[in-house]
Fold:
Amino acid sequence: MAEAKSRPYSRPVFDQAVTLCSEQAQRVMAREFTRVVSALYAIDVILRIIGDDREIDEVETVVNTLIGDCGKDVQNEKARLEKLREDNGITQLPRYTNPATTAIRIVSPQVAQFVALVQRMDELMVTLDALWLCGILTSKQRSNGAYQWQQRLLRMGRRIVEIERRARASAQQKGKEGEIQEATSESDGEESDIRELAADD
Structure:
């Protein structure tokens, strides 16, 4: 007699649409979002099922610190540029010719934190562009600033992916291959949805 197929696990998610104006934030979303979400999903859900709780908590702490520190730096720089904008009497913000709206699925708290970080980085770019268009910043200052923050978030995304790979390898070394396959199989539908939503730009 064939075994009954297990019922898919019902997970809580938030579906939302995120609009990004700047080219830099759009690039971060296009290049790293799907990979980062998959890594964060694995860390927050799959690896907790198959790994040692203490080890996974340590990994989550590293990721939270990584995102949190970057978020503070973005916020501090935005505050600095906003003061510069106010000091120069600039009240208008630029309109962007090709803003991009992406449907995304929030599958863990860390995914929500990462999305919020990209949105804050987008706001920072808008302020930077306002100062440049009004002649407060030179083209070189604007270009360097935009590139710096774009690369900062891209590097952070790659670091998160690498952290997940190391954590997964650690679980495999402990003989958890079967549980890894089971957890990965269970999450295939969810990760497929993530990829589809990220592609529906």
